[in-house]
Amino acid sequence: MSHPHIDVRRIATLARLELSEEEVASFSAPLDGVLALMEKLAQVDTAGIEPTSYPMPIDAPMREDIAWQSMPTDLFLQNAPEQAQQQIRVPKVVADA
Amino acid sequence: MLVKGEIQSTDIVDELLENVTQRDAEIGAFLSIDAVAIRAAAAKADLSLPLGGIPIAMKDNINVLGDPCTCGSKFLAENYHSPYDAGVTRRLRSAGVVFFGRTNMDEFAMGSATENSALQRTNNPAALGHIPGGSSGGSAAAVAAHFSPAAIGSDTGGSIRQPASHCGVVGLKPSYGRVSRYGLVAFASSLDQIGPLSRTVEDAAIILQAIAGHDPLDSTSLPLPVPNYLTNLHQGVKGLRIGIPKEYFAAGLASVVREAVEKEIVRLQEQGAIPVEISLPHTEYAVATYYIIAPAEASSNLSRFDGVRYGHRAANPADILSLYQRSREEGFGPEVKRRIILGTYVLSSGYYDAYYNKAQKVRTLIRKDFENAFAFCDAIISPVAPTAARKIGECTDPVQDYLADVCTIPVNLAGLPAISVPLPSDGLPIGLQIITPHLQESLLLQIAQAVENR
């Protein structure tokens, strides 16, 4: 993996970021710099090593299937940028038939 | 004095608020502080509670019902008010705490200088013109400036310990799983942990006592009993084996930091501790491992900021995709965007095994380094940061700031508890890091108290 390089525009699209041309240009060098730092890991022999996701084993406990407090609608909606009829409003999602 | 009625909680907050009014324009520790609400809370504080009437500042990424929670980001600065209490907030509230303002931070906790805050610059109270460290820079500055006796921060790769070290206060990162993360705005979920910043080790112990314990709303919080953190506080260090990891004293460590730490090792030895040289051989890979895992988790966690339910929404989007893309483009600052791109890249098809999976395996090796070392020592001592606080605006290459986290990052990767305690210094503040095995905060605090005793 010599000269690692991120196609910033392509990855930004995957990450739902609409970067400006200036940002794409200015991000390239620092991101490639970090990638170069990461190349160091290739030196480490990890054959037979299990990956660590969490620092210790985490159980996935099940709780009793009982009704649980939920956030009241007005509290939830207080932060919504746009709302209508006690619901959050967004642009149309479904295409015209 | 508070409990005896010799002093009123309202008098304390009045004096603190006066300090803030006079000096915070210069320091910039707080993003918001509601004096009316603070006075009202102090007036009705229940002094019979463990922390009754005690003011504590909160980092602006922890939800407190009704307060702003900006995460140092424009994305949440416009209109967000917390509709609920975080787990730690709930515990502190029931312990009688008066919530004392919201502290500045690097945007979404991504940074180690608080210069990545999109909202405000914070100065180091111990040395104006210098960074306070980060990402909990506002919390450390609030304590160092005597605005608040203590503050709460969060630590993903050193974000409590490093600002504590730079500002000359105590900063404790508990073991992963010791304190609930419910209501902490997530950066990297397998690394994040909430903890206190305070002026004394005992205060850190008292606050940890209040916030530690299981929370059914955070499945990664451990359902284990919480010991009394004050019981062994003054037991000293006699007979304790203190590991000195040679990799943490490598090239790049400023001589002033090295000398301060080495002097302290001698002092602990005089008190009966036994220094032991140890090796943590995978230390040199920790920063690279962290800068794969943390951005990967962040890119996933920050996908919730889409302009739909809360925070910034772009005006007049053409369609739903444009709403997501433009809201995120307008709301996030450059470091957050860079880390999201990095995280998305290392998780993307074709690169996952080479980067993310590889980093998780190296994480195992780093964790095992500590397990092996703790066979030979009871605790590990090291610098917190390789240098004292640099000047504001002095960093031109983010990778250099990343590399400066080499002494703090391995602790998060291994999920261990660690603390920064101030050392004597003629110049800028310097902190000593103490690390103990998982869940051994009592021992950590006991050694820290011995360091603090002068």
What does this entry look like structurally?
The complex is a heterodimer of chains A (97) and B (454). Chain A has three helices and two strands, in the order H-H-H-E-E. Chain A is mainly alpha-helical and 97 residues long. Chain A has a two-stranded antiparallel sheet with strand order 1-2. Chain A starts with 7 loop residues before the first helix and ends in a 9-residue tail after the last strand. The relative contact order of chain A is 0.08. The model of chain A has no long low-confidence stretch (mean pLDDT 90). Chain B is α/β, with parallel strands linked by helices and 454 residues long. Chain B has helices at 9-27, 35-43, 74-77, 87-94, 137-144, 161-167, 201-211, 255-270, 286-301, 320-331, 334-347, 353-373, 398-403, 409-414, 441-452; strands spanning 30-32, 55-59, 98-103, 150-155, 170-173, 193-198, 241-245, 274-278, 379-383, 418-423, 430-435. The mean pLDDT of chain B is 96. The chains are: A mainly alpha (97), B alpha/beta (454). The interface between A and B is large, with 53 and 75 residues.
